[in-house]
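Handout, section B. The chain below has 191 residues.
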Amino acid sequence: MKASRAIHAYLSAFAFIALMFFAVTGFLLNHPNWLKSKQSDAHTTEMSLPQDQIREILDGPTPDKNMGKLLSSTFNTVGDFKSGEIFDDEIMLRFASVKGTTTAFIDIQNGDVSLDIKKSNVPSIIRELHRGKDASGSWRFLIDIIAIITLLLSSIGFFLFFTIRYRLATSLKLCGASLAIFISVFIFTIP
């Protein structure tokens, strides 16, 4: 029991900032109009690549990934390579991260490259950091660690809550009410 309290206290101290971050970002996601922000900064950049370099990449293994590496090292793309499609006379590549996206169109015949770059605004950054979808692997790993710590913290707190005998009946009623509310909202309010 004493060890459970100590673990709960230390996990709480460690997880406090992370829990606050996800609570605030989750709340702001439910009220997007509270964050007034300018439109995302978007622009198009035109440049070119040597045709022999394009042909060499197309003839090699995983041409879409290798073309993505070339573009991200040669030009100022925003985001990590996500996907690519190769058509008869054009290559389309998509880069994405929390900070924004880049869509690249490469003309295979003449080497012309068009980069459509869109930088994220504050609400987009908050949404992506909360979701972790286009975040880096280290950010997604941090989200997983926070989830595990939150589960441990909640489980230990739940255990401690039930060890106080004079609050057991009230604790059981509150847990039952919480479960009933979650199930009711899911069943009756979500189409």
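Note. The mean pLDDT is 86. Compare this with the example in section A.
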